[in-house]
């Protein structure tokens, strides 16, 4: 591994020009005119340096990237999509290790340095998805860090045996306990949340629950999640993905929920969805709630969209939240960098001396322009090593 790297003429977060010196995988100095010798020197060309992008919500085991076009004729219900996908994995030959590697590399080439991936655990496919992602995680460990959520996509209470498989996944080293729509899918919110939080307590793991349930139904489930978080002392260890209910028309009710989320340090992960009610990012952040971003499913049986670009996702989050000012667009970028890092509890993350050398050079006069134009990433650095250039992976990465 290269022990030292010097990049000249970069602008940290769009500020004044400086050089950045990396030694042994960490940022040693950021200042103008660094004269220290280095094993490798790169010219930054005045580009903006940002911390590595964080993909805090995706599904690496499901992507169809690199496969034949999938003709999507799936019904409108969430359950329709779940059942179709479970069958399609076998019918289409969606091999988890191969597909997760394709998606992960596409993300890295666009500046992602950390990924949280939900991986389906069900009684049809067992732990095969997990085994594939774990293989990808090991093979790509030099260019991206992958954190895994055991995700009961098909339900837990309605599919006996799933809880036991979730337990096996955690025993294999999965970092996060996942959950899904306690009322809408399992139709047993108490049983579902008892199982999720029971596993979290037994294995000392955080929780990340998909909550697609809308309006008052979603608020009911969210209140049950908050009750358990408080009762079990799990403040700061619980995340809710999607949380469409926070975009309900009853703004006062949603505001009360947001204040309680802040009190309990429950994190929210959003995709900035185009067609569903969306958690109000500015209101959440002003209340002190950590908000992170993710692409969710990419080119899968649910949706034909997505390319793994978290800078583009920052733009989508900005669009969905009517962010127009430069400071608002910078907030959307923060959601896709520091927000994800906080949710994933990344140590030494950032763009300062002493931080891990995970950063990206992006094109633009300002960070806001970089978000809006999201041009190919000039340089992606992971642990002090250049892993991608111009949107293309480096040979040997």
What topology does this entry show?
Elements: E1 4-12, E2 18-23, E3 26-31, E4 40-51, E5 53-58, H1 78-91, H2 96-109, E6 112-120, H3 128-139, E7 145-151, H4 162-171, E8 176-180, H5 189-203, E9 207-210, H6 215-231, E10 238-241, H7 251-263, E11 267-270, H8 281-287, E12 291-293, H9 310-320, H10 326-343, E13 359-362, H11 367-373, E14 379-382, E15 385-389, E16 392-393
Parallel strand pairs: 1-4, 5-6, 6-7, 7-8, 8-9, 9-10, 10-11, 11-12
Antiparallel strand pairs: 1-2, 2-3, 4-13, 13-14, 14-15, 15-16
Helix pairs in contact: 2-3, 5-6, 6-7, 9-10, 9-11, 10-11
Short description:
This protein is of the alpha/beta class and 397 residues long.
Write a structural description:
With 397 residues, this protein is of the alpha/beta class. It folds into 2 domains: 4-51 and 350-393, Roll (Urease, subunit C, domain 1); 53-343, TIM Barrel. 35% of the residues lie in helices and 23% in strands. The chain contains 11 helices and 16 strands. The chain has helices at 78-91, 96-109, 128-139, 162-171, 189-203, 215-231, 251-263, 281-287, 310-320, 326-343, 367-373; strands at 4-12, 18-23, 26-31, 40-51, 53-58, 112-120, 145-151, 176-180, 207-210, 238-241, 267-270, 291-293, 359-362, 379-382, 385-389, 392-393. The chain has an 8-stranded mixed sheet with strand order 3-2-1-4-13-14-15-16, covered by helices on one side. A hairpin with a 2-residue loop joins strand 2 and strand 3 (26-31). Helix 10 (326-343) crosses helix 11 (367-373). The protein is globular, with a radius of gyration of 21 Å. The mean pLDDT is 97.
């Amino acid at each position: 591994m290269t022990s030292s790297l010097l990049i000249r003429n970069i602008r940290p977060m769009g500020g004044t020009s400086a050089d950045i010196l990396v030694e042994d995988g960490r940022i040693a100095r950021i200042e103008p005119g660094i004269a220290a010798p280095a094993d490798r020197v790169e010219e930054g060309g005045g580009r903006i340096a940002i911390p590595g992008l964080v993909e805090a919500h995706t599904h690496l085991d499901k992507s169809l990237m690199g496969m034949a076009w999938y003709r999507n004729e799936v019904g409108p219900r969430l359950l329709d999509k779940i059942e179709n996908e479970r069958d399609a994995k076998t019918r289409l030959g969606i091999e988890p290790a191969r597909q997760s590697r394709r998606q992960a590399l596409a993300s890295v080439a666009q500046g992602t340095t950390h990924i949280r991936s939900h991986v389906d655990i069900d009684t049809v496919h067992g732990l095969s998805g997990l085994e594939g992602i774990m293989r990808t995680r090991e093979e790509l460990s030099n260019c991206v860090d992958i954190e895994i959520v055991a995700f009961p996509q098909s339900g837990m209470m309605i599919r006996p045996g799933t809880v036991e498989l979730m337990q096996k996944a955690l025993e294999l080293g999965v970092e996060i306990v996942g959950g899904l729509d306690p009322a809408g899918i399992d139709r047993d919110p108490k049983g579902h949340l008892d199982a999720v939080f029971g596993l979290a307590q037994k294995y000392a793991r955080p929780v990340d629950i998909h909550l697609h349930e809308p309006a008052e139904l979603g608020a009911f489930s969210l209140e049950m999640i908050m009750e358990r978080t408080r009762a079990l002392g799990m403040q700061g260890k619980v995340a809710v993905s999607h949380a469409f209910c926070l975009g309900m028309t009853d703004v006062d009710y949603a505001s009360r929920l947001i204040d309680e989320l802040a009190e309990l340090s429950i994190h929210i992960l959003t995709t900035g969805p185009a067609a569903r009610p969306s958690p109000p990012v500015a209101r959440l952040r002003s209340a002190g709630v950590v908000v992170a971003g993710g692409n969710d499913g990419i080119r899968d049986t649910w949706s034909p969209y997505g390319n793994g670009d978290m800078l583009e996702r920052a733009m989508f989050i900005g669009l969905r939240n009517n962010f127009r000012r430069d400071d608002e667009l910078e907030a959307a970028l923060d959601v896709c960098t520091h927000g994800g890092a906080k949710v994933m509890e990344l140590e030494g993350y950032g763009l300062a001396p002493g931080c891990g050398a995970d950063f990206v050079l992006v094109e633009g006069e300002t960070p806001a322009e970089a978000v809006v134009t999201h041009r190919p990433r000039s340089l992606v650095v992971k642990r002090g090593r250049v892993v991608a250039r111009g949107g293309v992976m480096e040979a040997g990465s």
